[in-house]
């Protein structure tokens, strides 16, 4: 396991560097939007990665509710945190792309609004975990995560079911994509998936260590109080 | 082109900021472990 971490780090760096080259240099320029369309290679993989992380968060929350597993609780926390980071990228790159193409930074259509709501749900999830001192916090967070996960399919399918300003999907939808563009998109997604895995792994270890330290400190405090009696 | 570079820069600023936050938390935790070991 110790060797896997640096190997994954190198693989992530290679994939992201190659992905950057593919996105900025190798992929053909889109005819209507021009070079600004290349934001697609960061915006879409970040959205897919965020959806995947929120789905893992949902599964881990269900497992926690059934088994009360500490590992499942930590996985839920970690995937929500990293998912929020990727969702933030989506919410920042989206308006930067929208401004030159639509002429506006933001519009309250279903896709954009449901994505913002998704982000707000998971930010509130993280606030709950950070500031609640109740012993029931993991339980309340798991229930909130299950409600939050209901928004993921709504965001994903909103452009199929509603008329929105957001473009229709080019993969699995009516649109089509140049094979070179698809290649650049998938390379970048692979890079972001590796980055997400790497960060989740680091965050998981950090959380484990944090909980061990907190337990040791609590034990020390208990022993100190007994010694002083 | 400036919008394209702004989007790419924003992406990396967000990821690097989060990694820096994790590193800071890890450093704080190591400090706490050192203090516990000294007791």
Order of helices and strands of chain B: H
Q: Report the structural category of chain B.
A: mainly alpha
- Major sheet characteristics of chain B: none
Share of β-strand residues of chain B: under 5%
Average pLDDT confidence of chain B is: 93
What value does the average pLDDT of chain A take? 91
Work out the helicity level of chain A. Answer: over 70%
Number of beta strands of chain A: 0
State the oligomer. heterodimer
Biggest sheet features of chain A? none
Count of distinct strands of chain B: 0
Defining key terms:
heterodimer; A: 229 residues; mainly alpha; 7 helices; 79% helix; B: 39 residues; 1 helix
Describe, in plain words, how this protein is organized in 3D:
The complex is a heterodimer of chains A (229) and B (39). With 229 residues, chain A is mainly alpha-helical. In chain A, 79% of the residues lie in helices and 0% in strands. Chain A has helices at residues 4-26, 40-67, 70-102, 110-131, 137-149, 151-161, 179-228. The model of chain A has no long low-confidence stretch (mean pLDDT 91). Chain B is mostly helical and 39 residues long. Chain B is built from one helix and no strands. The mean pLDDT of chain B is 93. The A-B interface holds A 20, 24, 35-36, 38-39, 42-43, 46, 82, 85, 88-89, 92-93, 96-97, 99-100, 195, 199, 202-203, 206, 209-210, 213, 216-217, 220 and B 1, 3-4, 6-8, 10-11, 14-15, 18-19, 22, 25-26, 29, 32-33, 36, 39.
């Amino acid at each position: 396991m110790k060797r896997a971490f640096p190997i994954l780090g190198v693989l992530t760096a290679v994939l992201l560097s190659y992905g950057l080259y593919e996105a900025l240099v190798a992929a053909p320029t889109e005819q209507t939007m021009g070079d600004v369309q290349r934001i697609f290679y960061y915006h879409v993989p970040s959205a897919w990665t965020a959806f995947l992380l929120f789905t893992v968060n949902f599964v881990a929350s269900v497992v926690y509710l059934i088994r009360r597993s500490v590992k499942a609780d930590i996985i839920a926390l970690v995937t929500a945190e990293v998912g929020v980071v990727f969702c933030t990228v989506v919410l920042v790159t989206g308006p930067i792309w929208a401004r030159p193409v639509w002429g506006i930074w933001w519009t309250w259509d279903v896709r954009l609004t449901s994505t913002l709501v998704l982000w707000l749900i998971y930010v509130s999830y993280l606030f709950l975990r950070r500031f609640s001192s109740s012993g029931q916090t993991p339980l309340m967070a798991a229930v909130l995560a299950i409600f939050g996960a209901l928004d993921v399919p709504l965001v994903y399918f909103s452009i199929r079911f509603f008329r929105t300003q957001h473009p229709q999907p080019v993969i699995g939808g009516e649109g089509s994509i140049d094979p070179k563009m698809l290649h650049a998109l998938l390379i970048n997604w692979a890079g972001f998936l590796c980055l997400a895995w790497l960060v989740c792994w680091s965050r998981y270890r950090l959380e484990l260590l944090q909980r061990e330290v907190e337990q040791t400190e609590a034990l020390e405090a208990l022993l100190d109080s007994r010694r002083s009696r | 082109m400036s919008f394209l570079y702004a989007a790419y820069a924003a992406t990396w600023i967000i990821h690097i900021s989060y990694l820096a936050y994790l590193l800071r938390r890890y450093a704080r935790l190591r400090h706490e472990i050192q203090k516990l070991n000294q007791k």
